[in-house]
Amino acid sequence: MDKMQGSCMYLINQMYHHLSTSHRRIADYILEHPDKAVELSIDKLAAEIGTSESTLVRFVRKIGYSGYQHFRLSLATEITPAVKRVYENEIHEGDHIIQTIFNSAHSTLQATQELLKEEDIHEISKRLLTAQNILLFGIGGSYIVALDGFHKFVRLGLNIKIVEDFHMQLMVASQAKEDDVAIIYSHTGINVDVLSILRELKIQKTPIISITSNCHSQLAAESDLTLPVHVKNSGVISEAFSARIAQIAINDLLYLSLLQEKKEEAITQLEKMQSVISKRRL
How are strands ordered across the β-sheet holding 225-228? Predict the structure, then answer.
C-alpha cells in the first residue's frame, strides 16, 4: 500500500480483529508504547515485545507497509511533535539556541568518545595505509563528511577516490578491488542508495569500514569494521546535525592516527602540499 488511508495508529486499530495472536501482541505494544516503537531498532523492539524480527516484518506488511522502516517512519511522523522533527532535540519557546546547539554537539562528541576503541582506530589505520586505493562514499549530508575525509586524507599522499553523484559512486564501487578499502559514511545506515553501494562492494570483496549512528543497521552488520557515532535521537526523521560533527571528529582521529603511523613520510607529504597552497596566498 503506497498511499496510506488514515494514520498508522488508525490502521492498527482497524486491522486489530483480523490479526493473529502473535500480531495482536505486537499491536498492543505499539498502541500502548508508540514512542518506544519509534525509538527502538527492529531487533530491540522484537526482543522487547517477545517476538521475532520476521514476525514483526510480517505484521507491518499485514497492516499495509512495504517494510519495517516505512512503518517506523510513518509512526514517527504521526507521534513526534513537528518542532522535534526538524532537529534532534525538542526546542521550546524561550530556549537559547546557541546553548541548545553547542550542548547537543558536546553531548554527542562525549558519548561517541566513550564508544570508540583505540584498537579499532589502529586497525583501520593499518588497513588504510596498506590499501591500494581508499574509496569514500556518502549520500546527501554524509557526502559532506566524506568530502571532509578526502580533504584530510589526501594530505598524507594516500590514493583517495571520491565522487558526489550516486550513480558514479555505484560505478566506483563496481570497479573496487580486494586490495582497496572503502569507507561508507551514513547517519542511519538504512539509506537504500547506501545499501546498494554496500552490496556492490561486497560482490567485489572490498573491505568496508562504516561510520554510522546506527550500529544495528544492515550497513554496520555487513561492514568489516564500524566506528559508532552516538546521538540522542533515533534518527528516524529529525536532522542529527551533531552526528555530522562527531563523524568529522572521527575523520580528524583517523587523520592523526595515520599521521603517527606514517611519521616522516607524512610530514614530507604535508610540506609538499603546504608549499603548493602557500603560493596561492597574498
Answer: 160-161, 134-138, 181-186, 208-212, 225-228
**Sequence-distant contacts of 53-59: CB under 8 A, at least 24 apart:** 55/22, 55/23, 55/26, 56/26, 58/23, 59/19, 59/22, 59/23, 59/26, 59/27
Name the DSSP letter for residue 160.
E
DSSP character at residue 236:
S
Cell of 7: 494514520
Model confidence at 230: pLDDT above 50: yes
Q: How confident is the model at residue 80 (pLDDT cuts 50, 70, 90)?
A: low
Assess contact for 135 and 182: CB atoms under 8 A: yes
Which pTM does this prediction carry? 0.74
The region that residue 6 occupies, defined by phi over 0 for left and psi between -120 and 50 for alpha, beta otherwise, is left
Average pLDDT over residues 117-136: 95
What mean pLDDT is reported for the chain?
86
Rounded Cα distance between 101 and 84, Å, is 14
How many other C-beta atoms are found inside a 10 Å radius of the C-beta of residue 170?
Answer: 16
Size (the chain), residues: 282
List all residues 6 or more positions away from 15 whose beta carbon is below 8 Å from its beta carbon. 27, 62, 63
281: its cell numbers: 596566498
